[in-house]
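Entry type: protein chain
Record version: 2
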Amino acid sequence: MDVRIGMVAKYIKDNLHKNLKPAELARSLNLSASRLNHLFKAEIGMTPTQYLKALRLERAKDLGEMTFLSVKQIMNAVGFSDESHFARDFKKKYGESPATYQQRYVRAALEAADLPPHAAERKAEPRA
């Protein structure tokens, strides 16, 4: 693998939450954006922008499976800024909305732990 492309791929992976711009990534390597796209696609199979979106969606899926964060919290954690775009892209890739996907995993986890479905709900404790 081209060392420059490896560096960019690692930077993208380590900085999903940031507003990454392909032109800035290219400039950091003294390449044009189109040349970076060409090299990146030849090495990785997709453009840096496509790679970033794919990693963000994969991380969002993982957070939906492993946490009780809200969809909005997950969206922000992985760097999406528009909830409707996030939901549309997630549904396109995984076949269901982020909320539905997460609910399915929460139910499965509760069933595996033999807990009642309401066990994941947070109830406010009365203040003294």
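Comment: The chain has one domain: 3-117.
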